[in-house]
Design goal:
- Strands 1-2-4-3-5-8-6-7 form an eight-stranded mixed sheet, with helices on both faces.
- The chain is an alpha/beta fold and about 375 residues long.
- Helix 2 packs parallel to helix 3 and helix 3 packs across helix 14.
- Zinc ion binds next to loops.
Length: about 375
């Protein structure tokens, strides 16, 4: 086939909703993502010399937070990527895509926290170096906190097998059968809740929230002290995630529909766009970073702070079979981390896991950017007016 025909074939299948070059924001390693971030930030700093970087050092390296101040700063957008390590590939792409085409902002400064769970981003894990899920770790009142882990610990041998995983012909149908039996016994809703809400009893298990707050709490304080102080009136936080929900759709996830934060979100987005935690197929999370961050900002000053989780769906996990497959990949990856299988099986498990949180499909990636642009226009409208 002549090259020109092959080339035009590729042009035909290239999605039209975003520029093909935008897909270059989706990198394969943390290091490439970080280099590209620095490249874009350098260009911004030339135009806006007051732009600044805060470097937070801890055992796993340096987490960078980038501030691009408005001409007369009144309000602030904070965007966080990589709270769940491996999800940072998409989050980082969304951040850079937004920065590279940042609109003229009169009164809204922009703060980008890049790779919040640096270890997980570098090592393609969802959890951090202590097997902790950082979006289950930020308990606001640790002293008075107890988690009802009874249903989870009852399922422990199913969720966290203590042997090397295998991917033979029967492993998947067997897992589906065991899941269906568990669903029949406990109901889908209560299973989803008891697994996804976070647990504080099994340190090697999935969705472990940890016994104490992780070092990133220090990053939050440093960012507030260095970049926020008491400067702003309205603050809006976007925490970027992937993996839950309808494939190719950006879900806006919030707490219960009656929460003050949810009511603020209704000023920015339409009701139909938001997935509240009390809606069917959605769930509330203990120790969520977003609510902790909002709480810290409220304690430090009387900011009007609100925020949302952007969740880009990948496996249709709001449906029964999608959620079983999501759970299967979560379990396999964690099991393989603690009880490594042979190298072929390990690689297959790793690839399935990464594909769940970072789909390679170009049309998925291009939809991520398109839908983010659409929602961020509304956020900027809220902050600029
Ligand atoms: Zn996540």
């Amino acid at each position: 086939m002549p090259i020109s025909i092959i080339f035009s074939f590729f042009l035909m299948i290239t999605p039209t909703s975003a520029h093909a070059t935008d897909l270059n924001y989706f990198k394969n390693t943390y290091e490439e993502s970080e280099q590209d971030f620095d490249r874009i930030f350098k260009q911004i700093k030339q135009k806006n010399p007051k732009s600044d970087v805060l470097e937070f050092q801890y055992s796993q390296g340096t987490i960078k937070s980038y501030l691009i101040p408005a001409a007369t700063p009144e309000n602030l957008l904070i965007m966080i990527s990589g709270t769940h390590g491996v999800e940072g590939f998409t989050g980082s792409a969304v951040q850079r895509n937004l920065l590279a085409q940042l609109p003229e902002l009169k009164k809204t400064s922009v703060l980008m926290i890049h790779g919040f769970n640096l270890y997980g981003f570098k090592n393609k894990r969802r959890v951090n170096e202590h097997n902790i899920d950082l979006n289950r770790n930020f308990i606001i009142d640790r002293k008075g906190f107890t988690s009802d882990d009874q249903a989870y610990t009852g399922l422990n041998s199913f969720l966290n097998p203590n042997e090397a995983p295998s991917l033979n012909l029967f492993s998947r149908p067997l897992f589906v059968l065991r899941s269906v039996a568990n669903i029949a016994q406990h109901s889908m809703e209560s299973l989803r809740r008891s697994i996804l809400q976070g647990q504080y009893s099994v340190p090697q298990g999935i969705f472990y929230g940890g016994a104490q707050i992780e070092p990133q709490a220090g990053l939050i304080e440093a960012v507030i002290a260095e970049f926020i102080g008491k400067k702003y009136q309205k603050i809006f936080i976007v925490d970027l995630h992937t993996g839950y929900g309808e494939r190719g759709r950006l879900h806006l996830m919030s707490g219960k529909s009656t929460d003050a934060n949810s009511i603020e979100l209704l000023k920015i987005f339409e009701k139909s766009e938001i997935d509240f935690a009390d809606a069917k197929n959605f769930y509330a999370v203990q120790g969520e970073l977003l609510h902790y961050f909002i709480n810290r900002l409220k304690i430090r000053s009387a900011f009007n702070t609100s925020g949302v989780t952007f969740e880009y769906g990948t496996l249709d996990s709001q449906k029964t079979f999608g959620s079983i497959e999501s759970l299967r990949r979560m379990i396999l990856e964690n099991q393989n981390f603690h009880f490594p299988a042979d190298s072929k099986t390990s690689t297959d498990i790793q690839n399935m896991f990464v594909e769940m949180f970072y789909p390679s499909d170009p049309s998925w990636r291009s939809e991520v950017l398109r839908q983010s642009d659409e929602k961020m226009k509304k956020v900027f409208h809220y902050l600029e007016n």
